[in-house]
From TrEMBL:
Residues 75-317 form the GP-PDE domain. This is Glycerophosphodiester phosphodiesterase 1-like isoform X2. It comes from Acanthaster planci (Crown-of-thorns starfish). The keyword Iron does not apply. One of its GO terms (cellular component) is plasma membrane. GO terms for biological process: ethanolamine metabolic process; N-acylethanolamine metabolic process; phospholipid metabolic process.
Amino acid sequence: MRLQVYLSCLVNFFTAFSLIFCPSLMTCGWLISVAWCFWIAVTLLIASVISLLMFRLQRPNDRQIEAFFGNDWPSVSICHRGGAAEAPENTTFAFREANKNGSKFVEFDVGLTKDGVPVLLHDDSVDRTTNGTGALKNLTLAEVLKLNAAAKHPLREKFPQASIPTLEEATVECLSLGLNIFFDVKDWSTEMVNAITELFQRHSELYERGMVCSFFPLLPYKVRRQDPAILTALTTCTNLIQFEFGCDMTGPLWKRSLCILGDYLLLWSQSAWLWILCGNAATLLDKKIVTDVYLGRLCNNISGQLQRPPHATRHGLRLSDELLSGSLRRDL
């Protein structure tokens, strides 16, 4: 099985080089020797495979992964941002509502304040969800705690006042309620990585009840380099690079083209080799790409068995559509 996985990865590398480098090498072949172009391509390919095998991180054992997902997976409810449809998102009120509604999993977003304290907030700024304004990175913890996270929620009459919890407070609350946690982290700074790993070390039950996920591969890699026992996952997004670089339909064609190409390569990399490099326990899918063909290809890359169900312990599934802010359910 391990050999099958390596061979699958090698085939993916050959495919990438065929699609990306061959056209450019053929062009260069008109200028320099074709033989030289061939050996350059082979050398780069071999170097890439060796680098992957040298720097890859070992996956956690299956027992730890199965302990996190439980026997009911995937027929479970995951409350996105704590369950934002039923209570103010990313607050302790949301976690209590999730528990009351029978959920076993919550997902919440983590960011850093100006003074380096991790708190729960989805956006870069506090404008959308609170009665305050400004970027989170420009606000101290004391300033953040004065804000009302329920100020703009549709059910603000039911929840008139809700503070933004710190990561520590949110974790303690979820663990006390028996909820397993998906930590959605977009910041891969050393400060954030230290905050995450120290949290797991303070609460050892998180090694079987917490999973760190991110759109950005560097975050799970850095987390697991520091603490290999932490469960991590990569979240897919069909237009991450386009979103990050502000590539819309009105922008210049060259910029849009590069962003689209970048998104395609990132999606391919996530299913082809990034999961090996990071040693991830799960792949979290954007619902826009959940098709039988994609799931079959993903399963084949990861497990080497087309018959293996996509929700098995080799990788999990989360629907990451921002429009679905409440409890998310996916029965396969």
